[in-house]
Write a structure and sequence with these properties.
Length: 455
């Protein structure tokens, strides 16, 4: 008899349980593997936090496995804050009279080897032998003493910056951009125009610029009297520092000006007939610039044109056919008008003399000079206010001064009366409407009837 096989009930149940256990273990392993791969491949993004950087794992799902993985949960990890770099050591100073830059840097603790390196790197751009009192310098270096930058200022607007790079030293010339702001200044003369403007808190350069505007009509060495009034609308120029703070540098262009006093009332406004080419004009459109300047230098009149003067050296009375201007030795002397130089050299009692021939038969004389302008010679063309020499006391003179004379068709004439026949240019008729609009605006600002325009 054939016997059929039989199963033990206990054994079958055990086998079934074992299969289920293996299946569950396999599935769990696959799931964990997918989660691990998913997290490992997650892209990491840095997020700036209030105190320290935080890393966040982006959600990402793997597509390489048949088993879908659940999105990985975001994980935040706080990292320690990065240490701040140590601050740079900053050394600043100003060149004092009698002190060389090398000595100044040495006193600041800069080693000689580094001073020599700075000097060599800067030489093609600025030779420190031309360093002057008032020039400023600034050194930035690491706490260990390693140089980072060196700055050298030759003026309030110009300077040089040396930077240390991997390739060596890099030097750049820097020029500050000046921002103009309009201003109005007005006052009365006490002693001099210069002192009146300085007393109002402005730089003396504005007084010199103002005198230049009216140089054809007013001799500010002779005609100014206490109580004379002045008004000026002008630009004040500011430099913008790295931190955005504006610092005043100097006065800029005069836009409108008026002077009222013993010499009469004179008003001028600035107008550009074409971009970048401007000048000063009277309110009616006529130019304030005449054919002849009132004076050939900034000096004090010590003797006028006269037919009878007691000569201080010869002790005799004779005509003095010119105007004497006293000024310090070496003060620049300029031509009062465009012309051609016809004489440069000694001339007896005149000492060192320059003569300039102008149109319409005029010749101007400048005597007792200490020296002539560089390379000036007879035959040269000169422009109005071009320097031709310097004040001295050569020839028959008691002290440094210039005797200024003018001949008309071979006869001496009083230089103070030259402006009576001056030829002045006017604004072309086609530009008069634009001029009158601009002039009216500036005159309102000058009189305080209009708020100053912002630039």
């Amino acid at each position: 008899m054939q016997r059929s096989p039989t199963r033990s009930p206990g054994r079958g149940k055990g086998l079934s349980a074992l299969r289920w256990l293996l299946l569950i273990t396999f599935v769990s392993s696959v799931f964990l593997l997918g989660a691990f791969v998913s997290f490992s491949a997650a892209q990491v993004t840095a997020v700036a936090g209030p105190s320290a950087p935080v890393l966040v794992a982006d959600e990402w799902t793997t597509a390489s496995l048949d088993v879908a993985a659940a999105p990985a949960a975001a994980v935040a990890v706080t990292l320690p804050a990065l240490p701040e770099p140590p601050p740079l050591e900053v050394l600043e100073g100003e060149i004092e009279p009698g002190m060389a830059l090398g000595r100044a840097l040495e006193d600041q603790g800069i080693p000689a080897s580094e001073i020599n390196a700075i000097t060599r790197a800067m030489k093609p751009h600025f030779d420190f032998r031309r360093a002057r009192p008032g020039h400023r310098y600034r050194v930035e270096r690491e706490p260990g003493g390693t140089l980072v930058t060196f700055e050298y200022q030759t003026s309030s607007t110009e300077g040089y910056r040396l930077r240390v790079t991997d390739e060596g030293y890099e030097v750049q010339r820097e020029e500050a951009t000046l921002v103009p702001h309009r201003a109005l200044i007005a006052g009365l003369v006490g002693t001099t125009l210069y002192q009146a403007i300085v007393d109002l808190g402005e730089q003396g350069q504005l007084a010199r610029d103002f005198a230049n505007v009216f140089a054809w009509d007013i001799d500010f060495q002779k005609s100014v009297q206490p109580g004379d009034a002045f008004q000026i609308v002008y630009e004040r120029l500011f430099r913008v520092d790295l931190d955005g703070v504006e610092a005043y540098v100097r006065p800029g262009r005069i836009l409108a000006a008026r002077y009222t006093g013993a010499a009469g009332e004179h008003t001028a406004v600035y107008f550009e007939a074409s971009e970048g080419r401007g000048g000063y004009f009277r309110p009616d459109g006529g130019s304030v610039e005449g054919e002849f300047l009132m004076a050939p230098l900034n000096g004090r009149i010590t003797s006028n044109f006269t037919n009878a003067r007691h000569h201080p050296i010869l002790k005799i009375t004779r005509p003095h056919e010119g105007i004497d201007y006293a000024a310090p030795q070496g003060t620049p002397v300029w031509s009062v008008a465009d012309g051609k130089v016809v004489h440069v050299g000694g001339a007896g009692s005149f000492g060192r003399l320059v003569k300039v021939k102008h149109r319409n038969g005029y010749v101007s004389y400048y005597s007792h000079l200490s020296r002539y302008a560089n390379e000036l010679s007879a035959g040269d063309r000169v422009e109005q206010k071009q320097i031709i020499g310097y004040v001295g006391s050569s020839g028959l003179a008691t002290g440094p001064h210039v005797c200024f004379r003018v001949k008309k068709d071979g006869h001496y004439v009083n230089p103070a009366r030259l402006r009576a026949g001056a030829v002045r240019q006017s604004i072309p008729a086609s530009q008069l409407p634009a001029f009158h609009v601009a002039s009216a605006r500036l005159l309102d600002e000058l009189d305080g009837r209009r708020q100053l325009a912002s630039d």
